[in-house]
UniProtKB/TrEMBL annotation:
Entry-linked PANTHER family: GLOBIN-SENSOR DOMAIN-CONTAINING PROTEIN (PTHR42071:SF1), PROTOGLOBIN DOMAIN-CONTAINING PROTEIN (PTHR42071)
Globin-sensor domain mapped to chain residues: 37-213
GO molecular function: heme binding; oxygen binding
Feature: compositional bias, Basic and acidic residues: 1-12
Region of interest called Disordered, as start-end residue ranges on this chain: 1-20
Entry protein name: Protoglobin-domain-containing protein
Pfam hit, one: Protoglobin
Amino acid sequence: MPSTEDPPRVKEPTCPMKDWPRPIQHIDRKDLYTDLESRIQYLHSFLDFSSDDIEALISGSKYIKALIPAIVNIVYRKLLQYDITARAFQTRSTSFEGPLDEFPSEDSPQIAHRKMFLRGYLIKLCSDPSKMDFWEYLDKVGMMHVGQGRQHPLHVEYIHIGACLAFIQDTFTEAILSHPRLHLPRKIALVKALAKVIWIQNDLFAKWYVTDGRDEYGDEMPARGVEEEGFLGGKKVIDADNSQAEDVAA
């Protein structure tokens, strides 16, 4: 066994960094696929997601929360315009025990139920992104849309996920930029911060859909069991009934 005086082992880069003619930051490819925190740190660094973005999200959360009910209605109106996206709501969700309309509309009980969770999820987006469990939950959201971690599996193809996230971002951007009481610098900061979070969420969806890294590191990727929707590691993080996350309401 090595003695306690041995220096800590440094992970050797997989590319010959010493050959680069300038300083360059090393990113371990395996860690991107097997360690969520390493993946998040890389994305934060690449997108320049900083304490300024965190402050913009937290200080602007009251403005975002005021917009959320209208945005939820706009999003579901859009999703119900197309048969290929509306058909996802013909499948019973893990927590919904009420009746299912065969052809869902905005007044359907399953749509009202899904709206509650979308409100809670959007509120979660403007909670504290400095905590790792914020990103762990966003990763779980990605996992649940590929049929994992649910008692009643649901698989939504990635094209619709990407389109919906883009639509949410566009709707938020227009609402924030046209807000009558926010000064332009705060609008810009809030739009930029929210866009970075949504694009990291987009990556955490893609992580479960694409095969990059899966052949090499699939056996070392963390597995998750079935868990009730709105929970992370046994803790309730989305309160659909009150449309608030615990750490937001505090």
